[in-house]
């Protein structure tokens, strides 16, 4: 199957700083990528849909000024958590569809664990 | 009521046991049903993908969908310690968005 990578795998930062997380599709081009957040023992919650070359679509309740998404190329989407606070500590996971595959399957990245002190 | 309900567990079984994992849902428009396995601190990986009602088997895994009851199951035969993970069900309606609705996941522990 298609491979999606994320970097970094874990990050610890101080409150008030900004953190950038990268999501890459390694062997396919993804016009659309998805960003999820997962709290311990909770389900995946979709935060936003990242569209190459255009603005991201955010889910209700997700602050677009706090979670900046950039999808500058067909293989890279970035999520920047601005002015991070302890309540932003979570597991952030991206996924992507391979449009050339003809299937609906989403391929997930390995996730990034963010801890805000 | 959440659209997809899944008992978080943990479910602890001995090695070799048959495991039954289940989800219920309320949206009758769901047509695609998926099971993902998520190891600790990793992203989910797709295990099984079924369309509409019926059974699908892949090795030790069997996915079952009962649309009349709005109930789906994943059976694992001859469970192994390496099966210890969180299993998330997910489902979506046909057409429209590619985004499925996820259950919260069931934590499975298979002890030797």
Commentary on this structure:
The complex is a heterodimer of chains A (about 120) and B (about 110). Chain A is mainly beta and about 120 residues long. Chain A has no helices and eleven strands. In chain A, the strands form two sheets. In chain A, strands 2, 4, 5, 6, 9, 10 and 11 form a seven-stranded mixed sheet that branches. In chain A, strands 1-3-8-7 form a four-stranded antiparallel sheet, with no helix packed on it. The N and C termini of chain A lie far apart (about 35 Å). The mean pLDDT of chain A is about 90. With about 110 residues, chain B is mainly beta. In chain B, strands 2, 4, 5, 9, 10 and 11 form a six-stranded mixed sheet that branches. In chain B, strands 1-3-8-7-6 form a five-stranded antiparallel sheet, with no helix packed on it. Chain B is globular, with a radius of gyration of 13 Å. The interface between A and B is medium-sized, with 24 and 22 residues.
What's the layout of helices and strands?
The complex is a heterodimer of chains A (about 120) and B (about 110).
Chain A: E1 4-7, E2 10-13, E3 19-25, E4 32-38, E5 45-51, E6 57-58, E7 67-73, E8 76-81, E9 90-97, E10 106-108, E11 112-116
Parallel strand pairs in A: 2-11
Antiparallel strand pairs in A: 1-3, 3-8, 4-5, 4-9, 5-6, 7-8, 9-10, 9-11
Chain B: E1 4-5, E2 11-14, E3 19-25, E4 30-38, E5 45-51, E6 54-58, E7 61-66, E8 71-76, E9 85-93, E10 101-102, E11 106-111
Parallel strand pairs in B: 2-11
Antiparallel strand pairs in B: 1-3, 3-8, 4-5, 4-9, 6-7, 7-8, 9-10, 9-11
């Amino acid at each position: 199957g298609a491979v999606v990578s994320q970097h970094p795998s874990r990050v610890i930062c101080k409150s008030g700083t900004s953190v950038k997380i990268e999501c890459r599709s390694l062997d396919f081009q993804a016009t659309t990528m998805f960003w999820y957040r997962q709290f311990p023992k909770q389900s995946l919650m979709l935060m936003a849909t990242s569209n190459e070359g255009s603005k991201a679509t955010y889910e209700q309740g997700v602050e677009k000024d706090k979670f900046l998404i950039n999808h500058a190329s067909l293989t890279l989407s970035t999520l920047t958590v601005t002015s991070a606070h302890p309540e932003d500590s979570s597991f952030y996971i991206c996924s992507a569809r391979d449009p050339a595959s003809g299937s609906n399957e989403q391929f997930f990245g390995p996730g990034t664990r963010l801890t805000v002190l | 009521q959440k659209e997809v309900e899944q008992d978080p567990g943990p479910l602890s079984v001995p090695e070799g046991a048959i495991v039954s994992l289940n989800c219920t849902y309320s949206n009758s428009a769901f047509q695609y049903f998926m099971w993902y396995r998520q190891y600790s601190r990793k992203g989910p990986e797709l295990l099984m993908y079924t369309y509409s009602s019926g059974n699908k088997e892949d090795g030790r895994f069997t996915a079952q969908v009962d649309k009349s009851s709005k109930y789906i199951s994943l059976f694992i035969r001859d469970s192994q310690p390496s099966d210890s993970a969180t299993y998330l069900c997910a489902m979506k309606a046909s057409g429209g968005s590619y985004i499925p609705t996820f259950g919260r996941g069931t934590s499975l522990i298979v002890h030797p």
